[in-house]
Amino acid sequence: MKENRLAPPPDELVAIRRAVEWAIVTRRSARAFLEKEVPRETVEAILDVARYAATGVNIQPWKVHVVVGDAKDRLCAAIKRIDDDPSHSTTHSDEWDYYPEQWVSPYVDRRRALGWQLYGLLGIERGNKSRMQQQHGRNYLFFDAPVGLLFTVDRVMCEGSLLDYGMFLQNIMVVARASGLSTCPQAAFMKYHTIIEQELSLQPDEKFLVGMSLGYADESRLENTLVSEREPVSSFTSFHGLERP
Ligand SMILES: Cc1cc2nc3c(=O)[nH]c(=O)nc-3n(C[C@H](O)[C@H](O)[C@H](O)COP(=O)(O)O)c2cc1C
Hints:
The protein is an alpha+beta fold. It is 41% helix and 12% strand. The longest helix is centred in the last third of the chain and has 19 residues, at 160-178. The radius of gyration is 20 Å and the shape is globular. The chain starts with 9 loop residues before the first helix and ends in a 9-residue tail after the last helix. Flavin mononucleotide (FMN) binds next to strand 3.
């Protein structure tokens, strides 16, 4: 029989699996970054791998805007100006529904648990709305990350493209992790999509989806010690036609 020369040798396969698992399982959302610069080539190299995500009929629906330096500072300042002023911030809203309008159990419980975990670490007491708002506002500084990523999709695309997009975003986060970098995906930016459209001169057919911080996590910061919980496989999986041995 002819040897399959494309198949990695078994030992290598074990190492590959370990490396992939490590990058997936140890990826975490970082919420405090070091000033350390991330070279453009590194961002390009991450996107170069992420673009191999599977997409329905290979449509590859993503469009990425990378903001660094002055461009990032301008965008952050424009959003912060509004976000810090309640009379203006309440006039802004998400363009599309990411979260449910009505929160039900168990999702609302997980959401609360995460919030209290984060605020607990930072010593923010329940009811301290101004500290919560202040912490939430750090989203709009990309948590001090040197690189901000803003993702858009063509308005003609349907919900299916969100599936494709999720795979692309996960690829970015996993490859970043494997490159020694950290990320935080950020729905918080959705509220200020009109400001993003203006500041980045988005095309009329571009719909803003989500943002992401990218950089080196500041491991000395308490918010980066947060390890969010996961449900066990048995809680969300039903095996049909396969009995436990
Ligand atoms: C699409 C998306 C949007 C998110 N938006 C925010 C956000 O705006 N701000 C934030 O601090 N975390 C945000 N997160 C991070 C989640 O809170 C985090 O992924 C979740 O708690 C699981 O924790 P982990 O990423 O550390 O594993 C977002 C995650 C996803 C996937």
